[in-house]
């Protein structure tokens, strides 16, 4: 009896102990799940903040350049001096003739001093040159300007021979590696090469655009990629991204980077980069089944049109030069052997008429292909030159035929697209994003391109017998993401894009079976040396750091719109109590910033104190102003203006600063102020502008730097 009772007690004790352990395990598991869920929620909120601010900035960039395009169409110069200035200001990206470009960028005249210890290039390039460049850039060395210009010259020659859509086959290599945006982050490129191997005859790469901007080593990335492109032209393929655009580079850092690294020859290097960018292919096709484009598609994307577009004409996709349409109609009429109808002529009597006399000679027989081709080229060129002279457009065009500009016999009978249609094709593939909803609509978040749904993807793939699309253009937390029933793959290769720890980078490998295999990474040297427990603590700390960075950027946005927020809050404060509900606060903030953020969820991080669900909004705005003033010792009203307009002002300044010297002349400032004053709702007379110019030249050197430019903006904002 005694022993049986003892066993029973021991059994109950053991059972109770197991039950307690089980309950403890469940509690720990529940706590851990809640903890992970909270971390994930924080990470997603942080992500939305970063992405919303990024897209709003891109939208501002396009709005600014739409404004300049409007000025080009509407502004009537009052003198030849104003006309010349506008021409210089807005035609900075036009193509040079071949001889002019070589003369302008004469790299052979640049001497390399004996004291130079960096890498040296000689052409044709060899794999050893690429290795030397990689080692030099790892040691923070800089390639001499002569070699940079020489490399760009050779790269341009090579790119001009390529079609708009590159074709890659997995038959010639074991696999093809596709990389997304790098955005000047050289460490990510090094990590890709370390993990996957350098380009070689058995290792093909496709780099899908956005090599530059935002990061600090865009130039080094381009030098490395162009070097491998010339060494392995059949294995390395580069697509153009929306940031391979000199107007975008003015805002996002590449222009500034080049000028800081090459103060003497920076202008020549920039000019060559602009020309090289416009020759980059627009897409890559793997095994005729997988299409790689930077942004996306629309319901009007036409691969046949993309293959025939003269891509080098679109120096900047942000800016469509509508004036060139006037030279297009005579070209079409001549090719088709037609003349403008009488009704059209009668309807345009008020406009200058383009005299096409003398008429072109009789066309030779199409049986004689060389003679017919020469006649066609000569006729078209004569009419284009005539149109340019009549409308006083003094821009240069390339002299020789290239792959994308060649007019063949079969092109004559095919439809001739307008400049607007061609421009939209390129804009859509560089700027568009996928969306989960059906259909296709304007991408108002970015300000350019469109949103395309799964139905648009399905029709496009079916039309061209494709399996799926690979695109980049959007930062993804894991470095890649499928959508549209796994028919659209986004690949993004710049890790830590918004902040250290914000996202992974990734690349994808495709073999003959075209099944994607992903490799993820994060260029963070510290994390690799930590234990598993330390890595978990490090991950939590990183989330907190990224989160704080995102909220700091968001508070800057709120402060930059202080005046508009006050007006929005007052609309809910009918009795002038200085108080509004937290719900009205969230609604008002979204109505002003239009970032599409979950403000009610973000409120605890942004509103530190409230009474009975009410917010004293003036006190809250004062706290925001105090926080920003602690970082910048400037009066609050001016600081608000600068935070809201600085990016636009800096972009405008760089557009005016033609030689990228960091200085603009009095005349350039005066002429420009007339152009963009309406954009900022500023009204000044000519005498007022003259007085302003003289008053802001503080050091009296006859030029205006960017700080003086900001001061001018402050002074004008204070004018009644």
UniProtKB/TrEMBL annotation:
Its EC number is 3.1.3.16. SMART domains: EFh, PP2Ac. Residues 356-368 have a biased composition (Polar residues). Pfam families: EF-hand_7, Metallophos, PPP5. Residues 329-370 are annotated as: Disordered. Keywords: Calcium, Hydrolase, Manganese, Metal-binding, Repeat. Its cofactor is Mn(2+). It catalyses: O-phospho-L-seryl-[protein] + H2O = L-seryl-[protein] + phosphate; O-phospho-L-threonyl-[protein] + H2O = L-threonyl-[protein] + phosphate. Residues 560-595, 644-679, 684-719 form the EF-hand domain. It comes from the Eukaryota. One of its GO terms (biological process) is negative regulation of MAPK cascade. Belongs to the PPP phosphatase family. This is Serine/threonine-protein phosphatase. It comes from Lamprotornis superbus.
